[in-house]
Write a structure and sequence with these properties.
The complex is a heterodimer of chains A (about 350) and B (about 475). Chain A is an alpha/beta fold. Chain A has eleven helices and 15 strands. In chain A, α3 crosses α4. The radius of gyration of chain A is 22 Å and the shape is globular. Chain A starts with a strand and ends in a 10-residue tail after the last strand. The model of chain A has no long low-confidence stretch (mean pLDDT about 90). With about 475 residues, chain B is of the alpha/beta class. Chain B folds into two domains: about 1-175 and about 275-350, P-loop containing nucleotide triphosphate hydrolases (Rossmann fold); about 365-475, Rossmann fold. Chain B is built from 19 helices and 18 strands. In chain B, α10 (about 255-265) runs parallel beside α11 (about 290-300). The radius of gyration of chain B is 30 Å and the shape is globular. Chain B starts with a strand and ends in a 9-residue tail after the last helix. Classes of the chains: A alpha/beta (about 350), B alpha/beta (about 475). The interface between A and B is medium-sized, with 13 and 13 residues.
Chain lengths: ~350, ~475
């Protein structure tokens, strides 16, 4: 039985690696976090086999947690009415032994405490037994997004006697599955400490298999390594153009260009063009050239020559955005788009 | 093979609580009228069909236990006490279906299974409260919801049902709806989904061709409005097919033959075959010869779990008495299984001449006698010695048994806790024949009665000696000659 966590870089083919390992004999459990990655994997599985094989179970994380780990054991007993993604009010404090810590008065489960609830109900062993009964292989994609109680829960169930592969990119950590107070609050602040958590859960650390980006050119990889501070290697020697553009006429032309996606830190929907947010572009593999729109503080960082000092979460999102491109990468200042902005 | 391991019923028809463990091959449900045999089959049918429309067409008021409803209405009428109806079917032998596996069942154990839950909708509790506070005696069934769920709490729909089953109810054998349901189910078990789609497509094509060719002349003579043949959910392959035998539709045959054909056809073993077959009183409409044949077919059936509700001792004993589940009228929640009956006794009854095993099994008190003379006189003797009471009013059954098989019946009585007085001849040795012989069987509720005097060695001898004057008067040789 092999258990490992593979640290990948953007565009290195995480999804492809998982898809290649599938077959129609073993029973696979695949968990991912975002809906967009769920659709992406589903599409690729159907592409590979021509249909969706019955031996593969693909879940988004909360669907797995609720329908596979919670409901079979506790739904009837606790008479709960589904999951809410609202956070528990900070004014209410209940001890761990009180069900109300984990659910609203209307008995809807707090998503961010559901993993803890399963653990608190002494069900981890039962969940592991259930996984072992119905599956042979366990894959988790986007493992970097597991946070809060969910990370602890994932480490606990990784003890299941299944062939296990977790795949993720530490620096693409832009979302958290959930948070609860300061549980695992500093999980993502230090790369080495993060790696150590997997080691102590007896997972092998693989930083080799997916260290080279197939998507990004050598030029883009060098830019990301030097200016953003995330080490990424290119698979080949392709060159492309990375530049900053502030000629208003050219910026307008880029804005109008329906072939080049414009990636915004936030609120891309306020611009009537081909656009997306940095964070939400994660997992997307269909852009050729990418235009990254910088707000004023990030324009400053560009001029200072490095993004390494900016807020870590913003930096991760920027890394995600820059690593979307197969070809050229152009930065433009958001101020020049002011005239296009809808309120 | 998918099998039904257990059923749990709460507040269903006459059962406030019932739990039955099933045999993976054969289950014979036996009981008096109103003991709930058919209800058990119906419960299985409802849960396995996972069809809400089926439940709605039956009506919740017919499915709910009447007692729990009236207890609620005459009690505190509190929202929290509103009764719930629960039917749980525990399954086995289905691999790889984690969506069925969980502990959302009344026993709280990890098991594969599906259930029907019928309970008040929380959102309506305010309205229910209003209705209940008006002191009338109608129960708010309208505010109840019906759900089919697996034990892992996933919703179950008819197309997702994990086990294929069919109910054949001989009392409905001529009913048009039942016949169509039967035909449809059998069609589904004999044709794959791909085949069925192909049939449906071709059928539509043929109808269209018929219109084009045959109706052409007529339609050509019409301008705006033309005739066509109907194709709709109410007119397609599945609604139009029938089953035939020798080109004669089976629904135009006699009831007995229909019962036989339908059961035999359902028993056939095919690739998409049924997992469970529920037979409601298959003995109805069947002649003795056909009953024998049917039993042979049932015995030969493989890879199917059978549930048979029957009144017939013949069916129960011939198939295997050990597989009998007895439902009691007085204690509906306490069924008895005959699985602990010894193999020898079960085999004996399988081969013995026609007998009254179920009469014994279903009664509370019995007098076993050894022959025809005893059987004929027993009622009168009972009346004499009990001061005028009759066996009927006292609920005592008199069963005539071949002398050598007393022990077989006593074993059954022992198992079922039936009070038995067995009356036999001492055959010239009271101690050996009537005391030592039964030492393993007698108890407070089972006693052997015989004359202790070895010289009075049969019932007839005793009768004669005790009634010498009358007998001699009745049967003396002289009486045969007329005096006049």
């Amino acid at each position: 039985m092999d258990k490992s966590v593979i640290f990948a870089v953007a565009g290195s083919g995480k999804a492809s690696l998982l898809i290649e390992r599938l077959n129609e004999q073993q029973r696979f459990l695949i968990i991912t976090y975002t809906e967009s990655n769920y659709s992406n994997l589903r599409y690729k599985i159907i592409q590979r086999f021509g249909y969706f094989p019955g031996n593969i179970s693909l879940y988004t994380y909360f669907k797995f947690l609720h329908s596979f780990c919670y409901r079979p054991f506790l739904r009837l007993k606790k008479n709960t009415k589904g999951v809410t993604f609202k956070l528990p009010p900070t004014s209410e404090r209940f001890p761990l032994t009180n069900d109300r810590r984990f659910m609203t008065l209307g008995r809807r489960l707090y998503a961010n405490r559901l993993a803890k609830f399963v653990e608190q109900s002494n069900l981890v062993g039962d969940v592991i037994a259930r996984m072992e009964k119905y599956f042979d292989v366990f894959f988790v994609d986007e493992v970097q997004d597991f946070a809060g109680h969910d990370f602890n829960f994932l480490m606990a169930i990784s003890a299941a006697k299944l062939d296990t592969s977790f795949v993720g990119d530490f620096f693409q950590h832009t979302f958290d599955t959930s948070r609860d107070g300061n549980v695992n609050g500093s999980l993502h602040t230090d790369y080495n400490a993060y790696v150590a958590r997997f080691k102590s859960a007896k997972l092998k650390i693989d930083t080799e298999s997916l260290k080279k980006s197939r998507r990004c050119s050598k030029s883009v990889c060098e830019f990301i390594t030097e200016k953003i501070g995330v080490t990424i290697e290119a698979h080949d020697d392709r060159e492309s153009i990375v530049k900053y553009e502030d000629d208003p006429a050219i910026v307008s032309a880029i804005y109008e260009d329906s072939k080049t996606v414009k990636l915004f830190l936030k609120e891309h929907y306020k611009y009537n063009c081909y656009s997306q947010n940095w964070g939400a572009s994660k997992g997307v593999d269909l852009y050729q050239d990418v235009c990254v729109v910088l707000n004023s503080s990030n324009v400053k960082a560009w001029h200072s020559g490095s993004f390494q000092g900016i807020n870590p979460e913003t930096r991760n999102k920027l890394y995600v955005a820059c690593s979307r491109t197969r070809g050229n990468l152009t930065f433009i200042p958001e101020v020049l788009l002011k005239t296009f902005k809808r309120s | 093979m998918a099998t039904i391991r257990r059923i749990v019923l709460k507040n269903f028809k006459r059962f406030k609580n019932l739990e039955l463990e099933f045999d993976p091959e054969l289950n014979l449900l036996v009981g008096g009228n109103e003991a709930g045999k058919s209800s058990v089959l119906q419960a299985l049918d409802i849960v396995l069909s996972a069809s809400r429309s089926k439940v709605e067409s039956l009506g919740l008021e017919t499915l709910f236990n009447a007692e729990c409803i009236s207890e609620f209405l005459t009690g505190g009428r509190r929202i929290t006490d509103l009764p719930e109806l629960l039917l749980e079917v525990y399954l086995e032998g289905i691999d790889g279906h984690h969506e069925l596996d969980g502990r959302n069942n009344s026993k709280g154990i990890d098991h594969l299974g599906i259930k029907m839950v019928c309970k008040p909708v929380d959102e309506y509790t305010k309205e229910i409260q209003t209705i209940l506070s008006e002191k009338h005696d109608s129960f708010p069934f309208e505010y109840y919801s019906v759900h089919f769920q697996s034990f892992s709490d996933e919703a179950i729909f008819p197309y997702k049902k994990p086990l294929k089953h069919l109910l054949i109810d001989s009392s409905q054998i001529n009913n048009e709806y039942a016949t169509r349901e039967y035909t449809r189910s059998m069609y589904a078990t004999h044709a794959s989904v791909v085949q069925r789609n192909y049939h449906s497509f071709e059928y539509r094509k043929v109808k269209s061709k018929f219109k084009d060719d045959v109706f052409k002349e007529m339609n050509d003579g019409l301008d705006a409005y033309k005739f066509h043949v109907r194709t709709s959910p109410k007119a397609n392959v599945e609604t139009d097919i029938i089953i035939t035998e020798g080109d004669i539709p089976i629904d135009s045959k006699g009831k007995g033959r229909q019962c036989f054909i339908k059961t035999e056809f359902a028993l056939q073993n095919r690739e998409h075959a049924l997992d469970a077959l529920l037979l409601e009183e298959p003995e109805n409409h069947l002649s003795h010869v056909h009953m024998h044949k049917l039993i042979e077919r049932i015995r030969a059936s493989v890879r199917k779990q059978l549930f048979i509700a029957t009144h017939s001792s013949f069916i129960a004993t011939r198939l295997n008495l050990k597989k009998v589940l007895i439902l009691s009228e007085e204690h509906p929640s306490r069924p008895t299984s005959l699985k602990d009956l010894s193999g020898g006794t079960a085999n004996f009854f399988m081969k013995a001449p026609d007998n009254n095993v179920l009469e014994l099994a279903l009664c509370k008190k019995a007098i076993l006698v050894e022959g025809d003379a005893e059987f004929i006189l027993m009622d009168a003797l009972y009346r004499n010695s009990s001061g005028g009471a009759s066996t009927d009013t006292d609920g005592i059954h008199i069963i005539s048994v071949d002398g050598t098989s007393f022990k077989r019946y006593l074993e059954l009585a022992q198992l079922l806790g039936i009070k038995v007085a067995a009356i036999r001849d001492n055959d010239r040795n009271y101690k050996i024949n009537c005391v030592d012989n039964y030492s393993d069987y007698t108890s407070a509720s089972i006693q052997i009665f015989a004359d202790k005097n070895d010289a009075r060695y049969t019932f007839e001898v005793c009768m004669y000696q005790d009634n010498k004057a009358i007998c001699d008067g009745q049967f003396a040789a002289g009486r045969k000659t007329l005096t006049v």
